[in-house]
Structure formats: C-alpha cells, structure tokens
Amino acid sequence: MATAQPAFKFTYEDYRTAPPDKRYELLDGELLLTPAPNLKHQRLQFRLGSRLGRFIEEHALGEFFFAPCDVVLSDTDVVQPDLLFVSNERNHLLLGGDNVRGAPDLVVEILSPATAERDRGYKRALYAKHGVKEYWLVDPVAETVSILRPRGGALVVVRTFGREQVLRSPLLAGFELDLHAIFSS
Known about the structure:
Helices cover 24% and strands 33% of the residues. It is α+β, with helices and mostly antiparallel strands. The longest helix has 20 residues, at 39-58.
C-alpha cells in the first residue's frame, strides 16, 4: 500500500535565496514565479500609486510602497502586492528595514491574466486572515476598482467603482480618486 508523500514547503529563508533576477511570491510554501506586468498594468500602477502616495505623504499617514516590496505574512507566505500602505499605527511592521513584517493597512492588486485567480482567491483569504484593513482589486479590463473590507473573518466587497466614478476609501478619509483619469489611455 502506497503512502502519500508529505508535500515540500519552501520557507522564507528559501525564498530569500531564490535567484534575484526573477519576481517570486511564496504562497503556502509554494514558490511561484510571477511574470513582469504588461504596460497597461504598469500605467495603472503608476497613476494610482502616485496619487495614493502623494495623499498619504501630504497627510503624514504612514508609508507607501510600490512592488516589488516583500510583505512577510508567515514563514510560508511572502507576497508582493502592486501597492501597499502601512499606517503610522502599524509602523512597527517596518522596523526590520528589509521588508514589511505583517499585514499592511491597505493592499492594492491590479489583476492580470497570470494572477487574477490568485488575487481573488488565495491572496484575498490570506490578507483577511492576517488583518489587512482594506483590499482593492483593480480590474484593467472592466475598468473597475472593488474595495473589500473585513467582515466575519473574510474580506468582502463593500463597493465597486467604475471608470466614470470618483473612488472614496473608507480607510483614507478625504481621499478622492477620479477613475477616468486612472483608466484613460
């Protein structure tokens, strides 16, 4: 009778020694190669990131980062969100100086064919488990931004904004974002 072989799981230490010329994430001990984002993705990341970053800096709310930036959630889960914000209240997560050690306040993922299923599924559950306060899913094809917030141990959609709307975030009081400007070519 054959017995199941235990699954091998990579750890954060293994992740740190992966070849530096590639972009990886570590999800449940599985080392996943993530391809470089396409140009539309990068334009959205820049436009959204520059506006978010400026608001956070002008209001001295905390620190804002663009990918690649390692977020170490556990010894077997290391993610690189497209954009992330760590509030002053959670600045202890940055004390190691090399990465974010714990859940950021805000995580933004821009969906791509290679990562959409992972962003909507495993990573959504992972962010909920570790206490992310707000999660944005940006859909470049539908030209929408969905804001998810914790409820009952999960991150649930509280509002989806379309291209012709102004996004307002429950987490960032006073922040307004004209999505037409973000999604325009």
